Amino acid sequence: MRKINEIFYSLQGEGAHAGTPAVFVRFSGCNLKCIFCDTSHESGTEMGDEEIIEEVCKYPCRMVIMTGGEPGLWIDDALVDLLHKAGKYVAVETNGTQVLPEAVDWVTCSPKEGTVLRVRHIDEVKVVYIGQDVSPYLLIEAKEHFLQPCSCQNTEEVIEYIKKHPQWRLSLQTHKLINIP
Question: Which CATH superfamily is domain 2-125 in?
Answer without folding.
Answer: Aldolase class I (3.20.20.70)
